[in-house]
Amino acid sequence: MEDGARKVIIVGSGPAGYTAAIYAARADLSPLVYTGTTYGGQLMVTSEVENFPGFRDPVLGPKLMEEMRTQAERLGATLVQDDVTSVDFKKYPFEVRTANETQRARSVSVATGANPRRLNLTSEMRLMGHGVSNCAVCDGFFFKGKKLAVVGGGDTAMEEATFLTKFASSVTVIHRRNELRASMAMQREAVSNPKISFIWDSVVTEVLGDSRVEGVVLENVKTHERSQVQLDGLFVAIGYDPNTQMFREQLELDGRGYVVVLNETETSVPGVFAAGDVKDFKYRQAVTAAADGCKAALDADNFLKRHR
């Protein structure tokens, strides 16, 4: 461009960011992608992915992300492994800043994702993808006939627990309080399910197992008594935090911090688009994030055609 501005800058990687890069590159928009120093999104800590179309056999999460990354580069996207530190969407062209440079852009796609809240246990992260999961829809199929536990007491935890009963022999809900925060409808569904039981006033202090989850150590928050529960899998369902801190004064966010969108990907700022888990608190799947990335790139292309 005559003013030195990029046509498209994509902030974030993972299925949404990489797919946006693929479509933007094929539209001859020469996208610049800031992948972040920790790139690839949640699939980088996922072992086998069985529900992404196009793979006859399960594919490792990091392998799937590497294939998307390579495809984006082959088509002409420029990938920079830097973290974006701030943006300015109040001027046009927009500004996107890292510790090393400031780039200007005529359109920006935000694909920074969301992080599941953790128990902050070393053993939890060591066994992530080896019996510890944050997504029942993604991983429940691998636990047919197994004994599982879900940590949490909100709607997400009840949804996860109920979904897992399709596969598991039993599901134990572990909650730090003595009552659930979930809606009454979700509570009734979970409580009435014969496969679901509850352990109240308790937190997980350690996940047991060398190469796979074998159980957990619990501590009662009132009595501080400790106990062990034998398990084959642990699903942590205590919420997600969208990675939107840098956008708080730039884009409209909802009460939970997710980017508000109209017409699929359009944000409150014309020319800025959002894709994937940064705006999707409902589905949170690789395939839906990829679809969002496609839409964001097509919407950016249409925006640029209208604002030449």
Q: Biggest sheet, in brief?
A: 5 strands, parallel
**Morphology call:** elongated
Query: What is the straight-line distance between the termini?
Result: 10 Å
The gyration radius over C-alpha positions equals: 21 Å
Oligomeric state of the chains in view? single chain
Strand content: 25-35%
Question: How would you describe the overall organization of this protein?
Answer:
- The protein is α/β, with parallel strands linked by helices and 308 residues long.
- It is built from 7 helices and 20 strands.
- The chain has helices spanning 14-26, 61-74, 122-126, 136-139, 155-164, 184-191, 286-306, and strands at residues 9-11, 32-34, 48-49, 59-60, 78-80, 84-88, 94-98, 102-105, 108-110, 114-116, 132-133, 147-151, 170-174, 196-199, 202-208, 215-220, 226-230, 233-236, 240-242, 272-274.
- A 5-stranded parallel β-sheet has the order 5-2-1-9-20, with helices on one face. Strands 11-18-12-13-14 form a 5-stranded parallel β-sheet, covered by helices on one side.
List keywords for this structure.
alpha/beta; single chain; 24% helix; five-stranded parallel sheet; 25% strand; 308 residues
Describe the structure in brief.
By secondary structure, this protein is of the alpha/beta class. Helix content is 24%, strand content 25%. Strand 13, helix 6 and strand 14 (196-199) form a beta-alpha-beta unit.
